[in-house]
Amino acid sequence: xxxxxxxxxxxxxxxxxxxxxxxxxxxxxxxxxxxxxxxxxxxxxxxxxxxxxxxxxxxxxxxxxxxxxxxxxxxxxxxxxxxxxxxxxxxxxxxxxxxxxxxxxxxxxxxxxxxxxxxxxxx
Length: 123
What we know:
Elements: E1 3-7, E2 11-21, H1 22-34, E3 43-55, H2 58-74, E4 79-83, H3 87-98, E5 105-109, H4 112-119
Parallel strand pairs: 2-3, 3-4, 4-5
Antiparallel strand pairs: 1-2
Helix pairs in contact: 1-2
């Protein structure tokens, strides 16, 4: 599996590696949103630094967005930090935020330290 989910008291830290498909991204988003701990989350980190690339169809991204919109109804307080240096992933996130297709506060960072500062998370 090209991702791992690490639960923390205030949030969740997901790491991706290898080639990440849209189905796997969707599975990771659904797994977090369906967990009873989601209601108490304050942050979600998706770390793509170990990923070799992504292969997302538009349909998969639409399903991810739909899940995110639904999860916002359960917990609007979650801040989402995406860690990547991949321009393709960055552009997808920026276009999603610009089109207001994500309701949670979402930002892209080049490293975990920067994301931690924004989230108020100690490493």
